[in-house]
Amino acid sequence: MKYEVVIGLEVHVEMLTGSKLFCSCPNRFVAEPNVNTCPVCLGFPGALPQLNREALQQALRAAVALNCKVALYSYFDRKNYFYPDMPKGYQISQHYIPLGSNGFLDIEDEKGELKQVGIGRVHIEEDAGKLLHEAGGASGGSSMVDYNRAGGPLIEIVSEPDLRSSGEARRYLEKLKSIMQYAGVSDCKMEEGSLRCDANVSLRIPGDQSFGIKTELKNMNSFRAVEKSLDHDIKRQARILDSGEKVVTQTLRWDEDRQETIVMRGKLEAGDYRCFADPELAPIELTAEEVELARQNLPEMAAERARRFVEQYGLPEYDAGVLTASRCLADYFESCLEHFNKPKEVSNWVMGEFSAHLNNAGLEADQASFTPEDMVELLKMIDEQVISGKIAKEVLEKAFVSGKKPRLVVEEEGLLQISDQSELEAIIDRVISENPDTVESYRGGKGKALGHLVGQVMKATRGKANPQLVNELLVKKINS
Amino acid sequence: MRLYEMTAAELSRRLQSREVSSAEVVRSFLERIDEVDPYLRAFITRTPDLALKSAGEIDSRRMRGETLHPLAGVPIAVKDNISTLALRTTCASRILENYIPPFDATVVAALKKAGMPILGKTNLDEFAMGSSTENSAFFPTRNPWDPGRVPGGSSGGSVVAVATGMAPLALGSDTGGSIRQPASLCGVTGLRPTYGRVSRYGLVAFASSLDQIGTVSTTAFDGALLMNLIAGYDPLDSTSLPEEVPDYRAGLEPGLDKLRVGLIRYGRVDGFDPEVTEAVNKAASMLEEHGAKVGEVSLPLTDYGLSAYYLIAPSEASSNLGRYDGVRYGFCADGDSIEAMFSRTRGEGFGAEVKRRIMIGTYALSAGYYDAYYLKAMKVRTLIRRDYEKAFKKFDLLLGAASPTPAFKLGEKTEDPLQMYLSDVCNITDSLAGMPSLAVPGGFHSSGLPLGLQLTARPMQEKLLLKTGRFFEEQRAEYPLRPSLDFLEERGGDYEI
Question: Residue A88: which domain range?
Fold first, then answer.
């Protein structure tokens, strides 16, 4: 492509706190609407906000984890606009002075080299409620509002327009998620909305100093959707530019079903939010010591943890990198080790089969019903030769899907390993008599042929035979 | 002397000595309300049953020998922009005509805890926006000294209730003079405490950085009694002040030696009644005679105060009133779309003055105007605060008028918002600077209408204000002042204007 792609991302992250940003309502998901509400988060007349200090600490942690310069003096502004899910007619945010600015994070660029992506600002703001539309004919139908989420604690993280491809955008998001998770700021589950991403994208001729006309992309519900919608819009913009036309400033929505972007609104509809300092909240004042303390108290991040995994558990660097990419996965791995201290074996299973099932199901390690205890149970069965590695894969899959204990799956499915010598000898005798050619070529010195025979025995036992025992018995029988 | 003519202090004394019961006291005030309120209309909602019920409870607690708050059993009226649990709180607006709060304002919770029966909710200019109580969506309140005149505003209902013995005490709110200006027009004492001294939690916001709940009483001492109850830090209000609360009653005895008083020389203010200036000068002489040192002080930025105020307050109001959209509470109009529902709800629910201020504020905060209007006004506000700080290096107390004129006629200024805004000119800079300020009666105009003085002190110096207020009371033969209300008899029961 002859154009250079310029992408900037605006990410909203739900912070993990006990209560909402400005009231004591619980900050957690409940299905029943409007349960977690009070006069403050419903914007009742006369109710006043009180800043949740825990949320401030979380935001501070996020800012220092993203290498930001932290404002020792900042405050909250009101962003005024009308929408039914906005209880007060304004959102409390930080417009004029963000808590954090001038930060960065590192990703790999398209050539695999380290690239620093600037973070323009990290600021605190409150979440809105949720509109539920009820269908009911052309004129009918009603909309209802659930304010459970209203007033929830968010941080907005705005990158500089430093990203040059959809792949970089994706890696930026992955890195951001990892940092937020490691810092304990958020669980960053995009599918659940605890990480939300809007993208600004424009094209320009390489070497141009000024930016092209940008579009804003919304409604992407997964990292994959971010990548796809960016690709989609980059192609669309390129086509427009190729034909000599101009890109129009507009906001587009990603349609997951149709796999395309759809225009939401043009520039003229962009709002004037009439931001001004919220007179009902005291300014946020921090000391340099508090900021430094937050920096020092940051938990171990992915890179450090990977280094530790190599040193402490003797894992290959590759394993350590894969395991620590997600904090939950690394936690899962270490939980397994507590009861089954064979790091490389655990690593193989966690980053292999287990991760594959997680990806298929679109889950994080801590959401899987297959717990570290289950994994340990499975690995112990292999270790004790109750089941073979091959059978173990089947057991893991069944346990992962059904939520049953691995041992129960083995019992129910009759998957216990056959280590009974007489039972195996009968099968081996049959395989030997049915494959005289293979037996001959083994005798003739072709070692590989033995593998084929083992395979036949395994096939006959539907994989339940103890492979080591089969090997021994086969060699003994053929040589005798 | 009838019970309803007594001060809160006197009622408190008689209740504590068990000379009277709270039920008797409350009944006396309820009768007075029945007699007077149909003509003056201070109350939007009267709560006789609730008041008698809490009076009964206090009486039985007293009978059981429980230790009670000094104000226990003393009834009170509450301005109808202060939230009362399960009791309609309208802000004198159609949009909240049937709104019933699910919580008590912190000050109301304090009244209830102390056992003060609430007589009702008093009239005001809609959302406290106005200076005459004529902007009430329901009805205007009349001045008891001349029912053809306004009581001032926005706390007109609270002030008239106290001035006429319908309540011994009342809570008001003061954003740009809403306690002090009506107090002066009706001859009662009104205190606007330091910003943050009394919790705003539950006060329906007009302009949050200026709004302050305060007291309306017939004497400074009664104001001190009520301040003892409502002042203090409230974790629910981020702007409330953590400083310890003094006993406002203690040390109010006169003694003005070495008190340095700055007599405010106003800049160019049109329409200042010369008799008002005379009354203020006379008050200055009284202070001087009793040992105070009086000098002149000018607050040069006062001239800009009104302009700054009428940008900052409407800006905040335009945002504070955004929540009235008909979705969760209050009046809701039908509409084919959400936008139509919003605009019809607000279009029909708000009165003209509220809409005017929302528009002014929206304009002042808009992109392209923010710097020239809102931000400039905020800078002026900072400079005004510095003016005060400078003045308070030389003086302990500033003395001026609480209103440039005595009460004006009903309808006189309703067609000219600017003239109406000018009636707050004496009060507004104290509000912008966040200083405590007290209106006390300052004699009479030749027309027979009361005039008010305004005293302003450093932050947290409410006690000095109350003490000086008490000094002025003691200079007068008869106190408290009571309007005769002879028009009630003259017109029989058919009084109407």
Answer: 4-290
